[in-house]
């Protein structure tokens, strides 16, 4: 029998996260305080994040234990499957071996619970009663809502207005998990009121929703903390469970990647798959081409400058050295809402600067074309964000057909598109532009 | 470590389906021809179904091999996980051990691909170019669309008008898989035109959509065959892969069910889980309580008569001996569209008649209440159909709390509710009635 799906027993689930920071060739520039522009300290972040999270954000340990209660929840769906995309290979008539690591099996439908669960756990440990956050496409908000339900925390989600109006079912999902969802900009925060004063019909942005969620936590008198779904070192670290599992699964397949691909908005999904393979490479293992796929309409890694910038629109967050289009950049309303962010994770940015990773910008119609091909071949309808990885993987496989090379291409299918069918409907109706 | 999820390696996937027909204590009354009322023959079904399907429908073999190309596709998501619902147990403070077999991991989101894939395969073998079918809630239509994409067949889905209008994303999913979707009643068939003549604003019914799909196949001049998502012997047989896997997984857990629960509309999901355990019982193994959960608004098994009836509204299908509310029964518009069917599978009906299984009718608000509890405990939002099984499993677990008994309850979580969030939104808004 030729295996299709590589499934690890629950007992083989990785029990540590991998922190790449000590392995970065040039280290990582510190984040700066938004007021003083001095390097921030753990104490600076205390009003914002749970203490366990702050410790991890500053950690230079290579391995950090995954707490038991977090592992218990991971085990409800992890290890996630690694699947050999044999039908896609046939459809492309390529000699390439294509594998995808499928994170859509999580109850929230994406990789985001990998970090939502520990963030809720560490917040619970601190006695916090409520977590605030923002969500664009809704994958992150759904995941944090679910994680808060697990730990008995209230969850307050600021949802970008355009998504709030267009995706009532995403909102319904968060509310089913018990979260309260507010359209952003809202009148609940100064940042929101200022945005509404400037434009009463504002459809919002991820950067603005971050400002609101941060403000809501900072002004909660200690009852609330904030949670963030990407960009941070600790978030990328939590996501390394993806790549660690994939390493074991590729060993089952007796294979090893030539190319690793992931979609990159904030960068955590791409990094989660790539970093454990990069670790091997830095330790003398095989060299891999790591390709971050981003939307051509929001090309932080391919077109942004590598500079200090805020994470949010209002300038409430620390400044991070990263590839950025500017914190006031307002990306066009593409369907991959999870990739509409002006900045890129500092770790991913630092790796790009030393050429350990590549970046490629792809237009959305080409991504949906690849997404439909994938759905008809493998059955799974990818999230619009994930179609960016599919597109690059397909292009690499087509290149293999042209050159006759049989390369192993491993990509991250970060989530399913069940809450994004309007995007596919618009694609079929010819309504999408690049 | 205490395991949560019981995962079989791909190599342990069952390679045969179990056919319960030779083990039925009183056998199975034959289906009758709609014209002559004589027992139907395989030849009678030839214009309707693929020959491989007809052979299986009449088979009295206990084990039937799963064809290799079908197994290859099953392996993309099977074996599906069996999960110990520890958080639900804690939430209920019950000594019961609750397990759920989760079919929502299939790309179409339910158990339906287990039979859609072989039906498409056998049709392809016969050189058929197109499959016609009906869909209510959309789970079956999505699954057959996916299966047809795999085998390069066209797929024509008659979707009950009320679902067609209320669920554009289900339709979008089917179209993403390449299917053509028509609202039923339509002007494409005599049955549809008659219904529209009687009521131009008809919202349709599953029975009527079946009539349309059957007629479309019968009048295709051989280009098309029909596919059916439940009720038939062969469909129940295809679904036994669920219970066969669960048997192996419970052995991994060193446990065995006292109670097996499944939601029952046509009966295939319930039967798919239950029959392999029933086989053990009939062979001298432990006695299990098998409970079919049906909606109190469409109570074929608890309130219907055990009689010969048509499978569709127009009387085009053969008559089957089954529990039925009458083929002209028009069920209220509950959200569990997949359970809105007037009849019950002949096999399930026959088992009910000899008291080998129980049936319980549950109202929809109580089902959604259980569904929300499940979502907040286990992360997965159940399909409205599946909440019926959750409700009965929860009630049994509460009963265990009251009696202090530690029973093992195994239920089938037939699918996720990602395309049914409006039902949850309506539930929270207090709009549902029983």
CATH class of the domain at 5-13 and 66-109 and 232-428 in chain A: Alpha Beta
Order of the strands making up the biggest sheet of chain A:
1-4-5-15-10-11-14
Main pleated sheet of chain A: 7 strands, mixed
In total, how many beta strands of chain A?
A: 15
Radius of gyration of chain A: 20 Å
Shape-level CATH architecture of the domain at 5-13 and 66-109 and 232-428 in chain A: 3-Layer(aba) Sandwich
User: Under CATH, the topology of the domain at 5-13 and 66-109 and 232-428 in chain A is which?
Assistant: Rossmann fold
What would the principal axes of the Cα set say about the shape of chain A? globular
* Secondary structure category of chain A: alpha/beta
Mean pLDDT of chain A: 95
General description of the model:
Chain A has 434 residues and is an alpha/beta fold. Chain A has a domain at 5-13 and 66-109 and 232-428: Rossmann fold (3-Layer(aba) Sandwich). Chain A contains 17 helices and 15 strands. The longest helix of chain A has 20 residues, at 233-252. The first copy, chain A, is globular and about 60 Å long. Chains A, B: GO terms for molecular function: L-serine hydro-lyase (adding indole, L-tryptophan-forming) activity; pyridoxal phosphate binding; tryptophan synthase activity. Chains A, B: Residues 76-415 form the Tryptophan synthase beta chain-like PALP domain.
């Amino acid at each position: 029998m030729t295996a299709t799906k590589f499934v690890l027993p629950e007992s083989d689930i990785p029990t540590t996260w991998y922190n790449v920071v000590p392995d970065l060739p040039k280290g990582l520039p510190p984040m700066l305080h938004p007021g003083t522009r001095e390097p921030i300290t753990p104490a600076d972040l205390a009003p914002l994040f749970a203490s366990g999270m702050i410790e991890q954000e500053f950690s230079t340990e290579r391995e950090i234990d995954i707490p038991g209660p977090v592992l218990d929840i991971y085990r409800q769906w992890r290890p996630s499957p690694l699947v050999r995309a044999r039908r896609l290979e046939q459809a492309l008539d390529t000699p390439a071996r294509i594998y995808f690591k499928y994170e859509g099996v999580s109850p929230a439908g994406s990789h985001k619970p990998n970090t939502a669960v520990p963030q809720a756990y560490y917040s619970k440990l601190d006695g916090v009663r409520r977590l605030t956050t923002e969500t664009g496409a809704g994958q992150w908000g759904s995941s944090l809502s679910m994680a808060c339900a697990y730990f008995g925390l209230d969850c307050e989600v600021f949802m970008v207005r355009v998504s709030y109006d267009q995706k009532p079912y995403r909102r319904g999902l968060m509310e089913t998990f018990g979260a309260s969802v507010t359209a952003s900009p809202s009148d609940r925060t100064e940042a929101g009121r200022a945005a509404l004063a400037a434009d009463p019909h504002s459809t919002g942005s991820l950067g603005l929703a971050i400002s609101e969620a941060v403000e809501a936590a900072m002004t909660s008198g200690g009852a609330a903390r904030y949670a963030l779904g990407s960009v941070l070192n600790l978030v990328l670290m939590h996501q390394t469970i993806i790549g660690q599992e994939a390493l074991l699964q590729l060993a089952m397949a007796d294979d090893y990647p030539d190319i690793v691909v992931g979609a990159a908005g904030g960068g955590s999904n791409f990094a989660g798959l790539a970093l454990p393979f990069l670790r091997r490479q830095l330790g003398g293992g095989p060299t891999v081409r790591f390709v971050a796929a981003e939307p051509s309409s929001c090309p932080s890694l391919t077109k942004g400058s590598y500079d200090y910038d805020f994470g949010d629109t209002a300038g409430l967050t620390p400044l991070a050295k990263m590839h950025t289009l500017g914190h006031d950049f307002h990306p066009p309303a593409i369907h991959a809402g999870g990739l509409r962010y002006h900045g890129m994770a500092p770790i991913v940015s630092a790796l790009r600067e030393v050429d350990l990773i590549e970046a490629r910008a792809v237009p959305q119609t080409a991504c949906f074309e690849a997404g439909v091909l994938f759905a008809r071949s493998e059955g799974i309808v990818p999230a619009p964000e994930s179609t960016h990885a599919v597109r690059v993987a397909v292009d690499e496989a087509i290149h293999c057909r042209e050159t006759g090379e049989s390369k192993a291409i491993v990509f991250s299918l970060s989530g399913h598109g069940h809450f994004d069918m309007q995007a596919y409907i618009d694609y079929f109706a010819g309504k999408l532009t690049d």
